[in-house]
Amino acid sequence: MSGATSQLAAHLSSSLNRFEGRLATRDSGLVKTAVLAVSLAFFAVFIFLPLVLVFAEAFRKGWDTYIAALADPDAVSAIRLTLLAAAIAVPLNLVFGISAAWAIARFEFRGRQFLITLIDLPFSVSPVVAGLVYVLIFGAHGWFGSWLQAYDIDIIFAVPGIVLATIFVTFPFVARELIPLMQSQGREEEEAAIILGASGWQTFWRVTLPNVKWALLYGVILCNARAMGEFGAVSVVSGHIRGETNTMPLHVEILYNEYQFAAAFAVASLLALLALVTLALKAYVEWQAARNVAKDSEG
Amino acid sequence: MSGANRVLPGFGLSLGYTLAYLSLIVLIPLSAVFVKAAAMDFERFWSVVASERVVATYKLSFGMSLLAASINVVFGLLLTWAIVRYSFPGKKIVDALIDLPFALPTAVAGIALTALYAPNGWIGQILEPLGIKIAFGPYGVLVALIFIGLPFVVRTVQPILEDFDAGFEEAAASLGATRWQTVRRVVFPALLPALLTGFALAFARGVGEYGSVIFIAGNIPFVSEITPLMIITRLEEFDYQGATAIASVMLVISFVLLLVINLLQGWVARSTPRAI
Amino acid sequence: MSIAIEHVVKSFGTFRALDDVSLALPRGELVALLGPSGCGKTTLLRIVAGLESADAGRILIDGQDATGKHVRERQVGFVFQHYALFRHMSVFENIAFGLRVKPRRERPTEAEIHRRVHKLLDLVQLGWLKDRSPAQLSGGQRQRIALARALAVEPQVLLLDEPFGALDAKVRKELRRWLRRLHDELHISSVFVTHDQEEALEVADRIVLMNKGRIEQVGTPHQIYQEPATSFAYSFIGNVNTFRGKIEGAFLRVGDDLLPHFQCNFAEGEPVVGYARPHDTEIVADTQETAGVAARINRVLTSGGTSRVELVANGPERGGAKDYFEVEIGSEDLSRLALANGQRVRLKSRRLSLFRDQA
């Protein structure tokens, strides 16, 4: 009986926030109501309503219009190109992220901190500038423009340009998840593996990778979301050729500018769905990672 | 590498690959902007970056980014406080959806906000009779930048507030401070570095933002054009030099902001309070 | 296996962690590297393991030069301070790891791996934990699993970095005794690093006392405690009363007082430090006595057959703080002296060791 009551007490105190459970950190009911009202209203107006609106507009003219918008050959080719760009950019940045994290978190060398800053650089550059740089290099008037023309290779206003721009804007995602985690984990487990006779690859596959798998997945999920959703950078290099160099976000723009709102929101709803799946996966991964941390710090 | 810890293998390979890939994808392309800009003669460069229309875009981009970041600091702090300190139904969903602006493609955010705040939109039609016009004007830019910047503030402050030791507040209370005094003098100073970092991150993102803004801004010259749009406009006119000149200005600003953010983050790391 | 360390030098930037260290450790012994933090003991251990490379000098394991050998080939077992157990593997898999990663030709069969892991689990008496994950173990259990994992590859030398550092006092005592027993069973040459003198004195066959990148003294626990060779050894090991002053004939002048000494290898007027253990220090209550350092009784603590008397120096304060002394005397002597708090007495030493004052 006393076991049951203490369980109940534990349940009650865990359902109460740990700050609300302590007298000194508890706010008065009035303050709590006011803070919740203001902050949730702000959240609703700026975050929640836009999301709801995407789906509401997408289905406003019914299922048939919705399906028709998605089955349109231009839409299908945009979906295909978006998937292709992500399928190339994400693995490349994954390999890069692992390699950068290994070098930075497992060895000491001069300029390590500076290198981390450089890796973060693409996040602080405007996507429009990111697209422009490739135009300056591979465009008709760019560094390699005439050479590329001579060999009839299209990069700008073609698929390779879109892929390049996508790689640029998603460049840091995996690295920036892995580096801090691997730094905080230290290299003792790897050293232990090597002392026990493991080779470098054995150490990597059996010790390093299992220890960072959740952070890796987290980075990949965010990288993928951005790769599929990038607009500004891709817009500069794409040339907006329907059925050829249009990604889903660009297709949304074209439909919208042509006042085909229902179709635009139909394609947009697919991207919004992708965002929701991303957030759900992200929450799941965070939950898993937190569980692992809790397990590690037990006992 | 001094001392050479060669116990773990792969240093040369991983660092070499990292540097090569970084140079190829990021450093060399970015340097192209400066190389091309340096090749212009200064008068031409100046006439582009200091032209009236472009200067108007700086004012708009900076002004609205500052305003949006400030608004996000205030409401972001309240929202973070609600999520960390209170339990309420749907909290997990609110917490997860805070990241929506990171995950939702900017073009989708752009058309959704436009439809929402247009005169016939769900919110626009409430505001129109009050004489408030949001979409297709400078305040449209503000709304888009608030949307884009919110998670930067929340996600920077949240871990600090979560790790904040309740012992500090209990100590303050035991010394006779009122709840408000405790929050203002004990909690808030501890959050300040993170709040500033969140502000800087939201501001930096706002200055460069394109996708979510161009749909709602209306893009009226001298009124609601943002700087990134000017690069696009010049490109569409095949004025590569003009585009490059504006891009070089934006890049310099990005680098300065990156530096500021790095310094702020160092401050956050150093000033994170620990119970002794 | 025997370990020989020859003229090892190691610097980190401008900090000299090891300054020309040479040391020979005979086989089969349990050796403690003892010293304050930052003295270079962990660096030395990591260099012996091959986790760190020396800037100069050689490491010989069993007479063979191991300096250029990779950790993997040195056949050393290493137990990390925080154990470094693989957090995603079970206890069983942790111990089996070293066997599983052997090249295919040398890898034991699955049955053999099971047999050997179970044998090790029996050795560390934790067979019932084999399916747990490291996170579910207590600190002491983790320590023993880390040791079993290191032993699985049958190392020639076992190295332990602060093996009891992360444990609470009670568990630490138990594990100390256990490690000693285990060593007596296996007789594998072992070196452990510690900053805890009690631990070193209690467990080790031999203690290597280090300070500021140098070796101060090597000896058995008895030698280290009873015959400290240097000023540092005196002040680091055990409780000690310190007297600073100048030589004046058969006396050491400490402030206004004269303390008799029994060493004569110092020149007249030379600045020296004298050390005396509390049990070698005596209290003179006779007010007529003029020799000895003047002090005042502060507190008397009695526990069991002996008592500890805490005294405050009479002399001027140095650096804002008074000098404190401690004297250990038998209960009979204590009652004979009939000391009262605040009473003025003099201190002498039956055994005063003098060292040139470096400060």
What does this structure look like?
The complex is a heterotrimer of chains A (299), B (276) and C (359). With 299 residues, chain A is an all-alpha fold. Chain A has helices at residues 2-15, 29-58, 62-71, 73-106, 112-124, 127-138, 145-150, 159-170, 173-185, 188-195, 200-229, 232-238, 248-257, 261-297. By secondary structure, chain B is mainly alpha-helical. Chain B is built from 13 helices and no strands. Chain B has helices at residues 11-39, 42-49, 52-85, 91-97, 100-103, 106-117, 124-127, 138-163, 166-174, 179-208, 211-217, 227-236, 240-271. Chain C is built from 9 helices and 20 strands. In chain C, the strands form 4 sheets. Chain C has a 6-stranded mixed beta sheet, with helices on both faces. Chain C starts with a strand and ends with a strand.
Characteristics:
heterotrimer; B: 276 residues; mainly alpha; MetI-like fold; 2 domains; 13 helices; 0% strand; C: 359 residues; alpha+beta; 6-stranded mixed beta sheet; 5-stranded antiparallel beta sheet; 9 helices; elongated
Secondary-structure blueprint of this entry?
The complex is a heterotrimer of chains A (299), B (276) and C (359).
Chain A: H1 2-15, H2 29-58, H3 62-71, H4 73-106, H5 112-124, H6 127-138, H7 145-150, H8 159-170, H9 173-185, H10 188-195, H11 200-229, H12 232-238, H13 248-257, H14 261-297
Helix pairs in contact in A: 2-14, 3-14, 4-8, 4-9, 4-11, 4-13, 6-8, 6-12, 8-11, 8-12, 9-11, 10-11, 11-14, 13-14
Chain B: H1 11-39, H2 42-49, H3 52-85, H4 91-97, H5 100-103, H6 106-117, H7 124-127, H8 138-163, H9 166-174, H10 179-208, H11 211-217, H12 227-236, H13 240-271
Helix pairs in contact in B: 1-13, 2-13, 3-8, 3-10, 6-8, 6-11, 8-10, 8-11, 9-10, 10-13, 12-13
Chain C: E1 3-12, E2 15-25, E3 30-34, H1 41-49, E4 56-61, E5 64-65, E6 76-79, H2 91-100, H3 110-123, H4 139-152, E7 157-161, H5 169-186, E8 189-194, H6 197-203, E9 206-211, E10 214-219, H7 221-226, H8 231-236, E11 241-248, E12 251-254, E13 257-260, E14 271-276, E15 281-284, E16 293-303, E17 306-313, E18 324-330, H9 331-337, E19 344-349, E20 353-356
Parallel strand pairs in C: 3-8, 3-9, 6-7, 7-8
Antiparallel strand pairs in C: 1-2, 1-4, 4-5, 9-10, 11-12, 11-14, 12-13, 14-20, 15-19, 16-17, 16-19, 17-18
Helix pairs in contact in C: 2-3, 2-4, 3-4
